[in-house]
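Researcher: I'd like a structural prediction for the single chain below. Treat it as a standalone chain; there are no partners to consider.
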Amino acid sequence: MNYLYWFASVVTSPLLFLSTWLLVPLPGRAQILAAPDGTNTTVNQAGNNFNITGGTQTGSNLFHSFQQFGLNQGQAANFLSSPAIANILGRVTGGSASLINGEIRVSGGNANLYLMNPAGIVLGASASLNVPGSFIATTANGIGIGNGWFYSTGSNNYATLIGNPNQFAFNTVQPGAIINAGNLAVGQGQSITLLGGTVVNAGTVTAPGGTVTIAAVPGEKLVRISQEGSLLSLDLPTEIGFVLNSSTITPLSLPALLTGGNLRSVTGLAVENDVVKLTGAEIPVVAGDVVVKTIAAQTATLSAANNLTLPESQLRTTGDLNLRANNTVIVRDSITNPVTIQAGKNLTVQGDRGIDILALHHLQQGKPIQAGANLFLISNGAISGDTHYGSGGDFTLRSLNDGIASFVSLHDPVISANGNVLFAGNYLGPSLKVEARGDITFTGSITINNTDITAVDANAADQELLRSGRALILRAGRSTLDNPPNVPVLEFNDPGGGATGSVVIGGAIATAPLPEPLRTCKKITFTSSM
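Model: Treating it as a single chain, here is the predicted structure.
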């Protein structure tokens, strides 16, 4: 449901947060300190550069251990590598969050860089990457490599850690948070992963030709990430949890991370009565949430243990884009800033308990939500979708178990698909327009309960119908769409002979309220081959 609708009309910009960061380490403390634990990491400071050498090498993996890891603006952490190193893995054992407002660099090779700190990781507005491979930041308690584990604290059997990292173990009930306000970018074909208990990305994450994975992981879980960026979350095996229990760091809560001793000021994220909110808006950020501002990649997966919040977000992929929340996916534009959620191939929006979309302020700039291939809205709860959708392939609305979903709207829903439209749900809302080059199938009922006086449509006649009365316009088998997706269509299977241009409605059609025994919509259009 649109339980946050009022917010867009009274707040100019719901995402003015984290625009300025001031990271202030405690006086007299070095920002990067090697841990005296036998890993043999050496840190040499030369002006604003911290050169990191030594460590323990096993096969093509190089391991480092730090007591503390943080950077001020203008400083750089330089991991010295070699062509023989494929992965550099660093852990922070001291129990303090990493506050990084400078450059993270890898020189001398093409290694991927893993940074693990269960206490929390904060990347400020001046944080950046100069890493030839992929970058992974996590608040996990252990990283699985081959048949062994690189633990966040305690002793490691480095000799067994051969091969590529392939899983992450989170042992605490609520894992630590990751906050990024910087401009994180990697080279062509490389990837960026932010994996914690709560993740706020107010900055920009760019991985051209690669994968972006931003995920909030429930506590006491084992997570595996495939090359495609998909996440598999499993219960943490008892034997792994037992080992991690012996050396667990207690992570800071998100409010504590923002108000702790090393972080004097975070402009835009407000902490009031131990509750974190986006500045200027009554949208709380709680444990398990993912909040994302800007990403650009070939493929991307944003996954939240609780809510996935996308305020004024600019999400663009040339391949698949997966947006998932165990609770609710929330999408908001504002009067000043649009939302753009654009997948070059398939776009999946799945909120297990709900989807809440309100993005109508900037329709003249294009559809807020569109895919070059197929577009899916999936939920067992209410799908509240006040926006325009464009699909280069099929548009599908359904529940998680392929049953009937519930679609509720207050304003201006328009669905346009180059393929077929399968609406496996009931519709309740104002005047509705659905157009497709293929077939349109509604398996549930359609209830038009109001006119849509603010409707926007490229077809002037249809716009007038939608605005002047309770209208239902369903057009199948179209040769051209009135409102085609303006994302490049990379994968499109033309309906061709498999589509009949038919409209099938399995449930009742009605208007509500019903002051008379029976009232029909002002206009019902079932047309094909137009």
